[in-house]
């Protein structure tokens, strides 16, 4: 039986009680997809838009300070992947964070506008992320030995998958991965919600919809996926982790952040445990009373600003930025 002796939201998150239990549903997904995609074909402020073809776009942010733009300088880089449950959102969501990364860390920061299901199920979104990584590593002003990935929610899950693929293929050796409340396990459902009435912006029903579409099952749910067990292990980081420590060994230093009132709390804590067991330097930051997407919903809250700063600090260490 689920314990719903619900705790309080974090005191800084004053809008929590007004937030809906989820964002994307079967009924509003198409509309939200359209709205979230507005502006995706316009370059970011002080940045550029790169077309990789096939409707895959990169939003590129480079440092604007004079000292950071010296000719011939090779600098660290960060690849960002946006959230949205794998079925909504766009790379424009990363503009603010990528600009901070570029200016504060002197790094080239890009956000990949990856294609999404149901039109483009796995492995297309991950393939698009990998194409962005290859583009980034090939840039003349980027140090390919100092590239990290960052993502939130679905983007965090894709970032984790990208880190695994990069490790497996050995083309780009990532310096780190920063995962904010990452979406890691297609099996997460109602039982994972310790306090169901406290869920905000993403619930089990939406999670089932997102994973089902990503795994090629449409609205039937992830259990109807046509993927084999081996393919699922490549598509779902939590399933890969269950193969034992060897499956995660060799991944780069990792930072994971998640709130206690997030649907993904248990799966994220478990992934951090398995990474540590595999010998991967891992930092887990658990935010008491924080709900899914709290930092985007309440960006000016002190706990949100602190969480963003912690991610920047983690990137600074991973990329050896002085």
TrEMBL record:
Gene Ontology molecular function: hydrolase activity
Gene3D superfamilies for the chain: alpha/beta hydrolase
This protein's UniProt keywords: Hydrolase
Stretch list, region Disordered: 1-22
Keyword presence, Transmembrane: no
Pfam family name, one: Abhydrolase_3
Domain Alpha/beta hydrolase fold-3: 78-294
Top-level taxon of the source organism: Bacteria
The name this protein goes by in its record: Acetyl esterase/lipase
